[in-house]
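R.M. (postdoc): so does anyone remember the format we settled on? I'll just put the structure tokens first.
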């Protein structure tokens, strides 16, 4: 059989590129196409910052650095933000009230708000989702500072206290057909979504109510659970694709 090359067509733009191998017509989802584009462009030089004030930031750094051509940097201080040109930012799980307290005390809060306003991709997981939300219910007495930007109302600890933490496979169509294993630890839920918010995943809560557990709004991504605590890198790949597409 003559040696021919694969022809991969992006279903959205119709553009195509050759890959080594045989001419077989692959129709990829936009997500898969981006993935292959990123993989092909190994020289893509992306730096993703992970807010490291508190919480599960190390796990995000490790997960991000499994993506070819992507560097992750832990950010704590104003100087860290000033000394690193970052293309995207992850706000990890932990305790949103603590993060807000430290961010305010260290002068990082306004940098975070400026970064969100810049339009560069930002991903909040669990406490990070709360931090990114415009509104938070069940906030601490006296209220807690939020970065804002994601037009949602979240309910802190929606699924209960630590002892009610759970793991469950959920459907996240944007990642493909295979369910994603969600690790919910004193997790929030999104109760209201505003303009421009795309719902990516839902879950039935302990009261039988369907709540949103993952959403995207332009360059902002949020989820109630902890993808960094699973070996499944699809959520991190989705975020890397968002960052790559924004460059
Ligand atoms: N795992 C987590 O990030 C928990 C979030 C925490 N319950 C909060 O309200 O900030």
């Amino acid at each position: 059989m003559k040696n021919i090359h694969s022809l991969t067509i992006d279903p959205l733009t119709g553009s195509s590129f050759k890959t080594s191998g045989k001419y077989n017509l692959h129709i990829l989802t936009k997500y898969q196409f981006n993935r292959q584009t990123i993989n092909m462009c190994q020289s893509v030089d992306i730096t993703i910052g992970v807010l490291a004030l508190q919480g599960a930031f190390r796990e995000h750094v490790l997960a991000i650095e499994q993506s070819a051509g992507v560097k992750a940097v832990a950010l704590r201080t104003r100087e860290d933000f000033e000394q690193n040109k970052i293309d995207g930012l992850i706000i990890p799980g932990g305790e949103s009230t603590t993060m807000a307290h430290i961010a305010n005390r260290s002068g990082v809060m306004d940098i975070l708000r400026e970064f969100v306003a810049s339009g560069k991709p930002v991903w909040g997981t669990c406490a990070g989702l709360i931090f990114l939300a415009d509104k938070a219910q069940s906030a601490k007495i006296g209220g807690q500072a939020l970065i804002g930007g994601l037009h949602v109302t979240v309910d802190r600890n929606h699924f209960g206290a630590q002892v009610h933490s759970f793991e469950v496979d959920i459907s996240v169509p944007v990642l493909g057909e295979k369910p994603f294993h969600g690790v919910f630890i004193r997790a929030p839920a999104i109760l209201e979504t505003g303009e421009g918010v795309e719902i990516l995943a839902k879950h039935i809560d302990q009261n039988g109510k369907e709540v949103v557990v993952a959403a995207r709004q332009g360059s902002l991504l949020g989820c109630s659970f902890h993808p960094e605590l699973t070996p499944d890198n699809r959520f991190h790949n989705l975020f890397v694709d968002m960052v790559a597409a924004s460059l």
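R.M.: ...and that's the designed sequence above, right after the tokens. Also worth knowing: The CA atoms of residues 114 and 147 lie 9 Å apart. The pocket of glutamine is lined by residues 93-96, 126-127, 130, 156-157, 185-186 (CB under 6 Å).
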